[in-house]
Amino acid sequence: MDFSIKAFDTKNTIATAKAGVIAVAVFENKKLSQAAKALDGAGEITAALKSGDITGKTGTTLLLRGVKGAAAERVLLVGLGSDDAISEKSFTSGVTAALKVFSTLGASDAIIALPATEVKDRDVNWAIRTVVQSGHEAVFRTDGQKSKKDPAAAGVKKIALAVANDAANKLALAQAVAIASGMDLTKELGNTSANICTPTHLANVAKKLGKDYKFEVEVLDRKQLEALKMNSFLSVTNGSEQPPKFIVIKHMGGKAKDAPVVLVGKGITFDTGGISLKPGPGMDEMKYDMGGAASVLGTFRAIGEMNLKLNVIGIIASCENMPSGRATKPGDIVTSMNGLTIEILNTDAEGRLVLCDALTYAERFNPAAVIDIATLTGACIVALGHHKSGLFTRDDEAHNALADEIMAAGKNASDTAWRLPIGEEYNEQLKSNFADLANIGTPGGASCTAAAFLENFTRKYTWAHLDIAGTAWKSGGSKGATGRPVPLLSNFLIKRAA
Ligand code: BES
Ligand code: MN
Ligand code: ZN
């Protein structure tokens, strides 16, 4: 899908614009949007609304051919609901509905002339991102591993957005395309089966990104991890035949002396639970347990595309969590890289075991902020469903500011997070008789105790944790990775670079 901006003015009007199809909005109260009016010289659009052929309800569509007031071959009417307050949801549904029709047409190019500046509480930048992201979603394929590919997408390949062609909108479009292409990578990696998408595969993808965007990439293997005393991370990989990979990827787009933002991703390419084996049904979805790592790589593709003026370092701790004769056993005690000993009471709480050493490793970069991203706890889905990622930070001035910054970045990108607590009470739940910390808490608040565990390893810098267990992928009939939280992270970094 190719996106561009097409601005209209008094000379260069929407009525004279040539295109396979132009999408314009109509409303429930039978009113026409500005763009629809401009094409309604002969009254066909008014007539269509009057006749009831289209109600104007959110997401309804009607395709008209040969509209006399339009030079375009087709006009697609798109219902956006109420005209006095176009909601974010309405606009998004309208765009999705239009794209669906576009994909069935014998047209190759389209103009989307929906009221991008009239969405309640949203700006045109948001509207541009919504169109681009929906466009990528519409053509995203999941047949990479099928022997017979799904039929090639028909229809529209080029979309022009009818918005002002100013510097701000041009930048917004470039950023939107970068973020959407980052999400594509994150989705692709998530959906790829775990026998292919191994730690080595993730490392190779990181190296490829390094070549494409001039990132510095370093991959540490088992020997180097042993030398660093990452015994907590290594304990998770014990049962696996796949070699662990610790990936460090650097985009130094800022000033050399500027402290970097560090993104740390959980990269469990398959989580069986280990000796604390998970139940069989649905276990295939644990191929998505590298969603944090995939979001780091996707965000790097986005910032590489944008050539963002900011120093950003990605760290990915990647391995499989498998049972075997060599696997870690419940009750085993390991010494993590920062010296804290951990009693592994449940080998299925492995995410925190790989992350804690990665978080210790992050200290060496004197970071401005560290954000870890992890499909960490099923309990996060119980708490927040699939709508919002869980956000955890310490409760002090600097961290509350960071939490607000992350929440705002998410809200702005329609990729929201919601804050949940950590603190002394939760640390109490992690006490062990035999080690400094247990890797699971006493019952209750499992997402909070997981985050509290991580907090012990982050006291040397400003830190936030995103639990994306509920947001990284969808189950059921439309099973697939979502690309989240690439929009949140990209937006956060864009704001930091500004
Ligand atoms: N990767 C899982 C978390 C998960 C489970 C995410 C289901 C999405 C869907 C994680 O490693 C895990 O197994 N967590 C345990 C922690 C428990 C043992 C304290 C969980 O959530 O059950
Ligand atoms: Mn697990
Ligand atoms: Zn896991």
From TrEMBL:
Presumably involved in the processing and regular turnover of intracellular proteins. Catalyzes the removal of unsubstituted N-terminal amino acids from various peptides. It is an enzyme of class 3 (hydrolase). Belongs to the peptidase M17 family. It comes from Duganella guangzhouensis. InterPro entries: Leucine_aapep/pepB (IPR011356), Macro_dom-like (IPR043472), Peptidase_M17_C (IPR000819), Peptidase_M17_leu_NH2_pept (IPR023042), Peptidase_M17_N (IPR008283). The keyword Cytoplasm applies. It is found in: Cytoplasm. Pfam families: Peptidase_M17 (PF00883), Peptidase_M17_N (PF02789). Binds 2 manganese ions per subunit. It comes from the Bacteria. This is Probable cytosol aminopeptidase. It catalyses: Release of an N-terminal amino acid, Xaa-|-Yaa-, in which Xaa is preferably Leu, but may be other amino acids including Pro although not Arg or Lys, and Yaa may be Pro. Amino acid amides and methyl esters are also readily hydrolyzed, but rates on arylamides are exceedingly low; Release of an N-terminal amino acid, preferentially leucine, but not glutamic or aspartic acids. Residues 346-353 form the Cytosol aminopeptidase domain. Transmembrane segments: none annotated. GO terms for cellular component: cytoplasm. Mn(2+) 2 binds at K266, D271, D289, E350. Its cofactor is Mn(2+). Mn(2+) 1 binds at D271, D348, E350. One of its GO terms (molecular function) is manganese ion binding. The active site is at K278, R352.
